[in-house]
Write a structure and sequence with these properties.
Rossmann fold, about 15% strand, 6-phosphogluconate dehydrogenase C-terminal fold, oxidoreductase (chains A, B), homodimer, 8-stranded mixed sheet, alpha/beta, prephenate dehydrogenase (NAD+) activity (chains A, B), 11 helices, Preph/Arog_dehydrog (chains A, B), prephenate dehydrogenase (NADP+) activity (chains A, B)
Chain lengths: ~290, ~290
């Protein structure tokens, strides 16, 4: 019997619970969450086999920490204090530098693996959990060399079994790159939503003029502030840099419009069209 | 036999051709396009029954003008010159003020209906045409009172039969509102794509770190520059206004990050989360 503990039963933790259950039939899934309603919901939905508390962590073989990154900073060292020497703990947070720092000098650093599965939806809570969410998705692993070899093997085998593609990276590079391809998208979407909602205060009923294009660009503005505010805080310097570049590009586009240089605007768009080819690349799973 | 002419056999024109064929079995669909390849492709795909030229427009009962808005300005008066007194011509452009102005004093103004179906995808050309694209979608009609009553009836019945919901609006209001819920989304998406592509020049391989969130926010950056540059040109003043508001909101978000006021950032996101309810509203078709 493998005892798997999932701390934080939202979209990400709940989806791991479902996938692990399906590839490790013998595993017992224990759930920990400060939100008692979420814990009961996770039990009702069959995400977990039983509710647990921090005091049960001594039984754990595998611990998944799927909570806001601000909470992880304080809780990860406590979790490592509580687990056995042969247990492995991994997090799934969207920032990696501060999290790796928080456990850098912990006596059980070798029991920890820093991970970031690139998967999710704009929804949150136990009911948002999806079976197969991680299939063909990239999982970024940081500082793999700091995790005990046998525990690396164990967790990487689990990731492989649920269909993930592994990419190794140092925490600083992770945080710099992810600011561009994830964190900035969330801000652009939230601010787009804000801009249009503000307009709607004065001009009623503009939303029935919105189509699927608006819906797509504003989708991430549904995301959980409790998850995202701490991510922006932990990745502040990188996010500000991407925002400055984004704002600069928007200002330049605005100047071209003001000047009436629509040939330049055509060229800007045509150059950016190659995002088509790039996105195709994202969607082709490695055979 | 009803003779329907579709001028411009891209996503929008081609999809109209498909839907009209399915609700008007007796109609013959004639295609006109300056791009001979598109014309042949439309014929091969069964979007149209036969190829036609401008000189055939005298046979037309219904003419759909689905070409870039810049081309419509010059071509619409010519088309009206060529059609019979009982024919009806409608356009589908994403701007309405300049198009309505272009035909305002035409002797056949009563043969024209200004429309903007809120439907589409990021793809273009005849192969992008989709059957049922317009089902439950909003179609904005401008200056309906300027179209002959019997011709209004004829086209509105057609729109109803292919499942569209009709909304009436004056051209200036259309252009002001659509800048927020459509044109701005396209710019935010194009500039997001540009910002990340520029980064990739220096930092290789960041795109396999991108997930579905990035893909969703950047989807519209695949759109056709030939279609969009003229839209931005015709709606310049409104688009610049929305861009200024969007850039202002991004700058304010950046300042909050710089100051480290993540409580305010949390609140910004929480306030914008109500886009969830608004988007739900978009997706519920009127019974």
């Amino acid at each position: 019997m493998t005892n798997v503990f999932v701390i934080g039963l939202g979209l990400i933790g709940g989806s791991f619970a479902l996938d692990i259950k399906s590839v490790r039939g013998h595993a017992e899934i224990h759930g920990i969450d400060t939100n008692e309603d979420h814990l009961n919901e996770a039990l009702d939905l069959g995400l977990i086999d039983k509710k647990a508390g921090m005091e049960d962590l001594e039984k754990a073989d595998i611990v998944i920490v799927a909570i806001p990154v601000s909470t992880s900073l304080g809780l990860l060292p406590e979790i490592l204090d509580l687990v056995r020497d042969d247990a492995v703990v991994f997090d799934v947070g969207s920032t990696k530098s501060l999290i790796c720092e928080a456990v850098a000098d912990h006596p059980k650093r070798r029991n920890f693996l820093a991970a970031h599965p690139i998967a999710g939806t704009e929804f949150s809570g136990p009911s948002a959990a999806l079976k197969g969410l991680y299939k063909h998705k990239v999982n970024i692993i940081c500082e793999v060399e700091k995790t005990a070899f046998k525990l690396q093997e164990k967790v990487l085998k689990l990731f492989a079994d649920i269909g993930m593609r592994i990419r190794y990276m140092d925490p600083a590079s992770h945080d710099r790159h992810i600011a561009y391809v994830s964190h900035l998208s969330h801000i652009s979407s939230f601010m787009l939503g804000k801009t249009v909602i503000e307009k709607e205060k004065n001009e009623r009923d503009i939303f029935d003029m919105a189509g699927s294009g608006f819906e797509s660009t504003v989708r991430l503005a549904k995301s959980s502030p409790a998850m995202w505010a701490p991510i922006f805080e932990q990745n502040k310097a990188n996010v500000i840099e991407t925002l400055d570049e984004y704002i600069g590009n928007l200002q330049q586009f605005r100047e071209l419009m003001e000047k009436g240089d629509f040939e330049a605007i055509y060229n800007e768009m045509e150059n950016t069209n190659r995002i088509k080819e790039i996105l195709k690349g994202i969607n082709v799973p490695t055979p």
